[in-house]
Amino acid sequence: MGMFDFLRPKKNTASIAKDRLRIIVAQERTSRGAPDYLPLLQRELLEVIRKYVSIDVDAVKVDLVKDGDHDVLDISVALPEERTAPA
Questions:
Q1: Residue 1: is its pLDDT beyond 60?
Q2: What total number of domains does the chain contain?
Q3: What integer pLDDT is reported at residue 11 of this predicted model?
């Protein structure tokens, strides 16, 4: 074991960069061609649902899915098991 071994990264930096690039490409593929109003719609839905139920930011998912010639708005809301009123 050399004196400067602590300076070497534990994981290959090329593999870390490759993993990060995969994540970025996957995110770009899902958002490409999607209308620009989807993030706003997701935030507004979250605000309305939070009036009645305490939920996390990641609980509301809004996606646009192609179904043949039609675009389908897919909205998924993960509600907590115990429905508590928001604070």
A1: no
A2: 1
A3: 64
Confidence of residue 67 (pLDDT cuts 50, 70, 90): confident
Is residue 85 a part of any domain in this protein? no
Confidence (pLDDT) at 15: 77
In a domain, 1, yes or no: no
Q: Is 40 exposed, middle or buried (0-12, 13-18, 19+ CB in 10 A)?
A: exposed
d(CA 79, CA 46): 11
Contacts 24+ apart (CB under 8 A), 28-34: 30/63, 34/63, 34/64
| Residue 83, domain member (yes or no) | no
